[in-house]
Amino acid sequence: MRRFQKTRGSIINTASVVALVGSATPQLGYTASKGAVLAMTRELAIVHAKEGYRFNALCPAPLNTPLLQDWLGDDAAKRLRREIHFPSGRFGEAIEQAQAVLFLASDESSFVNGTDFVVDGGMTKAYVTAEGPPTQAPVNQGR
With 98 labelled, which of 62, 121, 128, 140 sits at a CA distance of 20 to 30 A? Predict the structure, then answer.
C-alpha cells in the first residue's frame, strides 16, 4: 500500500472458526495455520494502525458450497452432526460472508482493527441449539 502512496486501507485476512474452537475432525495443519493468521493479523493491526492501515481476520464457519455438499453427500448423520451446531439449523452462504467483507472494507468499519471477525451464525456461541426447522438462507441477488 505504501508503494502506491495509500494513506489508509483495510486488509482482510481469511482465518476460520477452527482457529477459535476445537474440532473432533483431525485437521491439525489447517487449524494451526488459521490460528497463525489470527496472530499475524493482530500484530499487523497494532504495528500499522497509526499509518492508517487496518487489519482484520474473517472467521467463517462452514459454508454451503458445492464442495461441502459433495463431501456430505447423502449421509444424513454426517450432515446432522455438523448442522446441529448452528442455531439457525443451516450452513452459512457465501453471500453472507461477502457482506461481512464489504463491511470490513468500508469506511463504516473505520474503528474496527485487529479483530477476529466471526461470521458463523452463532455456531461458536451455541452450547445447545433449539429444536425446529432451519431458517431460510438469503437469496443471492448477484446470480
Answer: 128
DSSP, residue by residue, the chain: -GGGT-S-EEEEEE--GGGTS--SS--HHHHHHHHHHHHHHHHHHHHHGGGTEEEEEEEE--B--HHHHHHHTT-HHHHHHHHTT-TTSS-B-HHHHHHHHHHHHSGGGTT--S-EEEESTTGGG-SSPPPSPPPPPPP-TT-
CATH number at 78 reads: 3.40.50.720
Q: What is the pLDDT of residues 28-73, one digit of tens each?
A: 999 999 999 999 999 999 999 999 999 999 999 999 999 999 999 9
Question: Which comes out higher in pLDDT, residue 25 or 89?
Answer: 89
> What are 116-133's pLDDT values in tens digits?
999 999 999 877 667 778
Does any domain span residue 34?
yes
| Overall domain count for the chain | 1
The pairs formed by 32-37 with CB atoms below 8 angstroms and a separation of 24 or more are 37/13
Catalytic residue among 11, 13, 20, 30: 30
The boundaries of the domain holding residue 61 are 7-123
